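Lay summary. Proteins are chains of building blocks that fold into shapes, and those shapes determine what they do. In this project we predict the shape from the chain. Here is one chain we studied, written as its sequence of building blocks.
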Amino acid sequence: RCSCRRWGGGLVQTGGFLRLSCTASEFALTNYAVGWFRQAPGKEREFVVGISWRWGITYYEDSVKGRFTIDRDNGKNTMYLQMNNLKPEDTAVYYCAADFRGGAVFTQDDVDYWGQGTLVTVSS
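And here is the predicted shape, written in a compact code that computers can read:
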């Protein structure tokens, strides 16, 4: 785990938006692929979006394509997840994650650092 401060979770209505942020305090994000996993109630944790450690290659899981955008600011040691047009099925605890020199897609076993998780609830 890292001391990743995260902001942005909360309750929003269907069609609304949220922006999640995650700042690393124990390591430099520059050398890491970063991404977001989520875990819905009663389900396994799943990989949602990622951005490679260099070249800025991104990956989006099909259900969030066109609605979510991942970004990073290495100067601020921070990663972001902009979530638009939220749906009830997006309700989950969202975890930021970092994989040393990883690609845009990585598994839980690849993760070197996890954020603490933030709850996003989308009401219908």
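What the prediction tells us: Residues 2 and 113 are 5 Å apart (CA to CA).
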